[in-house]
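Structure representation:
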Amino acid sequence: MVGTQRYWDGSRWTDHIAPMPMLAPMPMVRAQGMGDGVLVVGYITAIFIPVVGFIIGIVAMSKGRGGHGAAMLVISIVAFMFWLNALTPDTTYSTYNGY
């Protein structure tokens, strides 16, 4: 019967029935995505800690924020090249003359 539940005694369904319990309606839940705060952190880390910004960019792309994710990836790569160049010693101007 519709709107009722039957009982199982371990080997067969019994003739005992009970009305279905009334369930409270489920509240609307906002879809889990990347909030604006995470995106801001992603951009900041893309500049100052490019490896972390790169990872956040990949996560952003997988969470449906493709435009922001791609921007974080590009910024991370450019920032990584900048920091690599800025933090490694420049050996092109050596004082060694070869003599």
Remarks:
- The chain has a mean pLDDT of 85.
